[in-house]
Amino acid sequence: MSKRTVRDWESQADVMPAVEKWASDWSYRGVGEDSDGTREFLRPWRYQTEWTAALHMGKRWSMGWHVSIRQTGTQVHLEAWITYGLAYRIMTLGLMPREMGVQGGGFRDRGGRSLARSPLNLLVAKLGQPPIR
Question: Which listed residue, 4, 92, 93, 131, has the most CB atoms within 10 A of its CB?
Fold first, then answer.
């Protein structure tokens, strides 16, 4: 299992407006832009129960879905991954790494990877690419 899911392809069109609209529609927020034009988006994972919410306060305790995308000329580079906070890794007895790609395969966090992959596949389909499996 790789740490990040990576996709590279060529596109004649500017992909950033579609990416920014997708990020807004799916509650991802921009968390930075590098000097090379890489944009990173984060969607914090929200737990629905009070006891788990108490465990996931603060940055080091949180879990999030990340998407990083860069377009240089016609070349597009996309990376997607999930980060797991310390509390989550402790509760899973250390089975979860600090970060993991969203592609399928393996037994670790199949549900979480599937949930992260669903909106991401809508984005890659909008950009004319095959889905991430």
Answer: 4
Tell me the CB-side half-sphere exposure of residue 17, using CA atoms within 13 A.
Answer: 2
Query: DSSP 3-state assignment of 61?
Result: helix
Give dist(CA 74, CA 36) in Å, integer: 14
CB 102 within 8 A of CB 1: no
Enter the CATH code of domain 5-126.
3.30.530
CB atoms within 10 A of CB 30: 13
Extract the tokens encoding 124: 């890659």
Between CA 45 and CA 113 the distance in angstroms is 12
Listed residue (75, 93, 95, 105) closest to 5, CA to CA: 105
Model confidence over 75-124: pLDDT tens digits? 999 999 988 888 778 888 888 888 999 998 887 888 888 888 999 999 99
